[in-house]
Design goal:
The protein has eight helices and seven strands. The protein is an alpha/beta fold and about 260 residues long. Strands 3-2-1-4-5-6-7 form a seven-stranded parallel β-sheet, with helices on both faces. Helix 1 runs parallel beside helix 2. The model has no long low-confidence stretch (mean pLDDT about 95).
Length: about 260
Amino acid sequence: MDLGISGKTAIVCASSKGLGRGCAEALAAEGVNLVLNARGAEALEATAEAIRAAHGVTVTTVAGDITTEEVRGEVLEAAGDVEILVNNAGGPPPGLWNDWDRDDFIAAFDANMLTPIALMQAVLPGMIDRGWGRVVNITSGSVKAPVPQLGLSNTARTGLTGFVAGTSRQVAWAGVTINNLLPGIHATDRAVMLDSGVSKAEGIPIDEARKNREATIPAHRYGTTEEFGAACAFLCSKHAGFIVGQNIVLDGGAINATI
């Protein structure tokens, strides 16, 4: 299927590895030019080089903390007329409800709610003027089914979801869509971190912790970054113009819900 987005420009945040990289790879395979951002310059440039070599698209890198106004400005300047925005940020650390103070919540809000909102506010006017745009926010399955130990993520990402619910319906008339992808467990560093926590808490090998978690997923495996990226690329395509303000779960059936 031709997704009809060749030659367009996309910002992909937190894209040096994991789900962000999966999205960047999938967009590049469709001929989309990229502006990639992540904190680690070395890993980011290595990813950019690999994508350039594999797909022949233009890839610009801006290393730095996207939660800062300065780095957001550099990313937006590098991108110019942005037609696709993929918001992404690593999740805050797990814990108990009484582990966190106000600073912990502010940090989670900055990374997982306020920064994606700021980027949307920056790019939406241009998208509306041009009559076309795609925004995909990578949130979490915990928005639909809160995970007790992920209270920071539950809170911040749900706030972003509320913003998208209203905003997406205010801009759809202009050919601009905003949707959220809600990943369950995928084979990324985040999964390793969570499995390592279980391994330590329960005194079991990390491989056993992973197998135990996989057993709770109807697909009996973790997701891949490639299939996640493919879903993102479709939401960014010309075929997805009637998908507005949706929260699409990619979790192998882990969330047991009728709707």
